[in-house]
Amino acid sequence: MKKLFLLAVSIGLLEAATAQHLHVPMGGKMLQVPQVKGSKEQIMQQYRQKFKSPVRDMNWWLCYALDMDSLNGFIAALHANYLFSDSNVLVNFGDGYGGTIEGNPWVHMLGDVLDPLAFVFYEINDVTLTNSDPYYLDSAGIVMAYFRNTDASVVDTLLVYYFDSPVGGTNLPLYYYSDPFFLQNYGYDTIYVPFIKYNKSAHRPNAGTALKTMKVPLYEEDSSSFFYFKLFDMNDLFVAANRKVVMAVAFKPGYSYSPFQNIANQYNYVIFASYEENGPQTYQTYIPQEYNVSSIITTSVRYGIDQYGYNNLFVPSYAFYDSYGFERHLFLYNVSDEMTGINEVEATALADLHLIPNPAQQQTDLYFTLSRPAQVSIQLTDVVGRELMSMTPRTVGKGIQRQQMGVDRLQPGLYWVVLRVEGKATTLPLVVTR
Fold first, then answer.
1. What is the pTM of this model?
2. Residue 11: which of 127, 217, 178, 221 has the closest Cα?
3. Start-end ranges of CATH 2.60.40.2550 in the chain?
């Protein structure tokens, strides 16, 4: 039987907190779904052919599970399971219903955190981003299979949720586990894990206004008994320096069903794929200060009946005491240092513009992206247009640029930041608070 550990102590809190050592019974079969076709080798072949060649400079396709498997010599074990929002339906596990807490709980939602600064991405993909570099997320996806048993008029949906956050921030708190077990199996007696927060009533990540939602329809032509990469257009999500991307995916059926129906044989369903990183009956690798982690919403969390500290949280793969098949979900990300959809011969070289943070108290950073080298100047004015500070015009290179602006000496209120690119002015409001 699987077990969970959690020491629910947030890192960075000013108040002292008391650690709790929790052992939580957990099912979660490492199910090898027999009807899914496609091996590890076929998935890797798709990955290499579609996403690895050719690769533009400063544009990378990243999949932690597949890249780490390449680094480790292809030793991971492929596992799969059903992704479904409800639990009171029959699946052919052979020994019960999805809602059996001690048996085979459904996986109600997948969660994943992307840290593009991980060593494996540098080693395999030559990713050169640092903590001071912002980036864009152009596309993302998951490896899945999609089975249909209804007529073509039924349209199912993948619900894709995403946001970006610093590790340890409000929307991505950092907790730690500590026990001799971790020293034995991970090489460290204390490991630090970012947690995705969960909104049970809405069945989605709890990230407030930062959360973005995408509904991806699944049609007859999306069905496949083979694992394949299902991609989503992330609309060049801008991610500021030292922030991570968080994604979650759920399946919403487009048909009505009743309790105890055999969904797997009669209706449509999605199978997701995950790796057991170091092979069967092993534990994944823990690397300090790297924050790529996969997680799930279990049945007990989905229905708010988890009594051991995981309610309102996605359960990370590190929480499992026994070896566990869903250590690394096969999430795919396309990361770039510039917007990939920009036409480089467009009339203006300015492609994107952000002030972070805004409102600001001490300092704000002006991020802007140029589709080609251009002459740039920056000006800060008060609300009536009087200049308070400026940057001498200079030629700036192509890509994402960052200009720090100290505002600690300004009175609270509204100001204007004026960016001129090749003589064309773009103005952003800036609010200063105390």
1. 0.73
2. 178
3. 350-432
